[in-house]
Amino acid sequence: MENILKTIREKIEVVLKKEDIYVDSIHYETEGKYHFLRIVLDKMGGIDLDTIVMATNLINPILDKLDLIEEEYILDVLSKERGNE
Predict the structure, then answer these.
(1) Residue 46 covered by a domain
(2) Is the pLDDT of residue 85 over 70?
C-alpha cells in the first residue's frame, strides 16, 4: 500500500501545485467495514470549503484513471488542522 500511496501523492501533487495547494499527508484506513483514502491538504493562509471541493474535483479523475486500489473506498479530502491561530 505504501507504494500505491506514494504514486497517488506524486500524481495529484502535480495538479494541486498549480493551485498552490500542498499535500500534507495521505492515509488509507479501515473503519469497520469501510475503507477510506484520506488526503490532507494545506495552503498558505489555510483552505476553505470551496477549495476542498475544487481540489476533490481535481483529484477524483486522477484516482479514477490510476485505478490502483482494488477494493471500494471513500475518498475523504480534508484540510490540515491549524489549531488556535
Answers:
(1) yes
(2) no
In a domain, 13, yes or no: yes
Q: 45's torsion region: left (phi>0), alpha (psi -120 to 50) or beta?
A: left
Contact 25, 41 (CB under 8 A): no
**82 vs 85: CA distance, rounded Å:** 7
Domain encompassing residue 14: 2-79
User: Does 85 fall in a domain?
Assistant: no
Q: How many domains does the structure of the chain reveal?
A: 1
Q: What are 4-62's pLDDT values in tens digits?
A: 999 999 999 999 999 999 999 999 999 999 999 999 999 998 899 999 999 999 999 99
pLDDT of 84 > 60? The answer is: no
The answer to whether the CB of 75 falls within 8 A of the CB of 66 is no
> Where residue 7 sits, what CATH number does that domain have?
3.30.300.70
Alpha-carbon span 75 to 82, nearest angstrom? 22
